[in-house]
Amino acid sequence: MQEPEEKKIALELLETEQAYVNRLHLLDQVFYTELMKEAKTGKTVPEEVVKMIFSNISSIYQFHSEFFLPELQERMEDWNCNPRIGDVIQKLAPFLKMYGEYVRNFDKAVELITAWSEKSPPFQELIADIQKRKVCANLTLQHHMLEPVQRIPRYELLLKDYVRKLPPESPDRGDAEKALEMIFMVAKHSNAAIAEMERLQNLWGVYQRLGLEDDIVDPSNQLIKEGPIQKVSTRNNSTSEKYLFLFNNMLLYCVPKVIQVGAEFQVHLRMDVDGMKVRELNDTQFPHTFLVSGKRRTLQLQARSQEEMDAWIK
């Protein structure tokens, strides 16, 4: 008898879960535990740093090893009498929200490993020593740490496949579809957390380049476009190099600093997007120019090409 397709996928879910729990064990019970033990001696790295690197990995490990994996194993042993996993995954889904914290912290964790490996040779040696063990399979700590970040998308793919292969009359159909919907929401939550983190990091980088001016720093701003531009001076028929940052609520007209200490740009003019008018000019002497008019001031700007001008105007 050929195994039904949906059972094969359920078994793949179980096998990958076993491998995943082994990886979590390595992260929590080996790397985290041993680095923490060393940190307590005060010779390698502060305890706080180790905690920051591993975030909430202990909770994730505990949940999968003590709850989800045993439930899944029990279900697969009982498959012939009760062929279903949808309800078990529904129980799992709400707990996956705790991945948000781990995922948001991931970039910071990798930066900390790099920084402290340079700062503290004993810290680097201990990590290298653990990485040499057979259980690490020649992979780095950073590589193992990526696994939880990739786990939720993996559940989503397996479960999608499972629902697709279920016969229409399967007793698991309703539960499995609901479980997939829940996993999809968690994956979205996790992706949104990553996107929001990236947006804030990029925004902070822009604010640093602008010298962290108080009235500009606002976490709710969105950077839409930035780039160099020529300012046309009709008085003396010349152009000078400027730089624009266009946010959802304001346009910053900046001058690149010659001596870049701290900030890269100096803000010369701030124009509110509200009430701003933009139009193309047909100037034969200065091609690709456009006018940006605010409440108090109008700028004549020249782009490097037609495409670039169109992009700014848009």
UniProtKB/TrEMBL annotation:
InterPro entries for the chain: DBL_dom_sf, DH_dom, FYVE_RhoGEF_PH, PH-like_dom_sf, PH_domain, SOS1_NGEF_PH
Pfam families linked: RhoGEF, SOS1_NGEF_PH
Key words, A-Z: Cytoplasm, Cytoskeleton, Metal-binding, Phosphoprotein, Repeat, Zinc, Zinc-finger
Cross-referenced SUPFAM superfamilies: DBL homology domain (DH-domain), PH domain-like
Domain DH: 5-193
Cited Gene3D superfamilies: Dbl homology (DH) domain, Pleckstrin-homology domain (PH domain)/Phosphotyrosine-binding domain (PTB)
UniProt cross-references to CDD domains, sorted A to Z: RhoGEF
Entry's Gene Ontology molecular function annotations: guanyl-nucleotide exchange factor activity; zinc ion binding
Domain PH as annotated: residue spans: 222-314
Gene Ontology BP annotations: cytoskeleton organization; filopodium assembly
Primary location group: cytoplasm
GO cellular-component term (any): cytoskeleton
Localization per Swiss-Prot or TrEMBL: Cytoplasm, Cytoskeleton
Protein name: FGD2 protein
